[in-house]
Design goal:
Elements: H1 17-28, H2 31-37, H3 42-53, H4 70-74, H5 80-93, H6 108-124, H7 141-149, H8 158-164, H9 173-181, H10 193-209, E1 214-217, H11 222-237, E2 242-253, H12 261-268, E3 280-284, H13 294-306, E4 315-323, E5 328-339, E6 344-355
Helix pairs in contact: 1-5, 2-3, 6-7, 6-8, 6-9, 9-10, 11-13
């Protein structure tokens, strides 16, 4: 008499608590745990860990992979119904299956990591001249955010931030930060493993960070404004050539955290007295009034004092352009000081006219 064993049940549907628990087991457990505790066929355990290790065959390096679906798990070498059932059984008995799927989110730890990554990359990246109507590439969220959410490259070395912290230099900076949290700590952000957190959370993180700041131009105190205008009149009278100056002050509600200098400049520069046309952009040393005429530096110092910002930290950017002019030259410079902690932006515009 031949005994026919009952077939194993089919694996659970994708995006169910059972599937979630199985993927946690497949992505988080070591080879020894998969081999001994889950009781997988040794070749199955090897197949899982080799897939996770990527091309370099080393776990904990930049090319690590995450098993994202039950179908992907099923497709691995030597899995099959019996081994899939063992993964599900282990996930059920050991509490890996939640009552409900966790809502995708950008966890606080991950949010903080991306914030630090953005600040680091903004400071490290050299601005690059953009096309017509562009403000350069270096300090802008459109370029920095992918660097911190997707992959680092030589221009925006976000992975270096994590390497500087003594963490493995993942090409994927989110995973680099995750690598600092997941050393034997399964909760709260490591529930899907260091690779899985990016696959699950990055769209939510991008929605959190892809928000521009809201800037509002404010009217200075009339007495302060009178003092500034008097200083400007003296400055213009003593300038070499024909120069005109304007001071503008903005307050802003932060958008992405942190609000980047480039995002701020992108909003205040087009509203300058002359429309910018593909300017030259430079990030200047922080907390230092940029090079300009001594009277203009003194003017900015007075503005800072009058606004109660003396001693406060600020970021500095400069944009410059030559505006087309028949038989003449018009140069327009914008000096932008962003007081991040005080959510205040000071803009000094300078227009220089030369009759050729």
């Amino acid at each position: 008499m031949t005994t026919v064993s009952a077939p194993y049940p089919p694996p659970p549907a994708e995006n169910t608590p059972e599937a979630y628990g199985m993927l946690r087991v497949a992505n988080e457990l070591t080879f020894e745990q998969l081999d001994d505790d889950v009781a997988l066929n040794r070749r199955s355990a090897t197949s899982i860990t080799e897939f996770r290790a990527g091309a370099d065959e080393l776990l904990g390096t930049a090319d690590d992979q995450y098993i994202a679906t039950i179908a992907e798990l099923d497709a691995l070498y030597w899995m099959g119904p019996a081994n899939l059932w063992r993964v599900l059984n282990y996930a059920t008995l050991e509490g890996y299956i939640p009552a409900a799927l966790p809502a995708p989110s950008c966890e606080a730890e991950l949010d903080d990591a991306i914030t630090q990554c953005l600040r680091f990359v903004e400071d490290a990246a050299a601005p690059v001249q953009g096309g017509q109507g562009s403000f350069g590439w270096g300090p802008f969220a459109d370029d920095l955010l992918p660097s911190c959410l997707e992959a680092s490259d030589a221009s925006y070395p976000s992975a270096d931030y994590f390497a500087d912290q003594g963490i493995v230099g993942y090409l994927e900076p989110v995973l680099g930060y995750q690598g600092s949290l997941c050393d034997g700590v399964p909760e709260p952000v490591c529930a899907l493993g260091s690779a899985g957190i990016a696959a699950r959370s990055m769209p939510q993180c991008e929605a959190v960070f892809d928000v521009p700041p809201v800037l509002t131009e404010v009217a200075p105190d009339p007495a302060d404004l009178a003092d500034w205008n008097a200083a400007i009149a003296t400055l213009e009278a003593n300038s070499f050539g024909t120069n005109h100056y304007w001071v503008r002050v903005f307050e802003y509600q932060p958008g992405m955290s942190p609000t980047l200098l480039g995002d701020t400049m992108g909003q205040v520069l087009p509203n300058a007295p002359l429309e910018y046309q593909g300017p030259w952009l430079e990030r200047e040393p922080s907390d230092t009034i940029p090079p300009m005429a001594a009277g203009a530096q003194a003017l900015l110092g007075d503005v800072i004092d009058d606004l109660g910002l003396t001693g406060a930290a600020y970021d500095v950017g400069i944009a410059a352009e030559e505006v087309p002019c028949p038989n003449c030259h018009i140069f327009h410079d914008g000096f932008v000081l962003m007081f991040r902690d005080d959510q205040t932006v000071i803009v000094l515009d300078r227009e220089t006219f030369w009759d050729s």
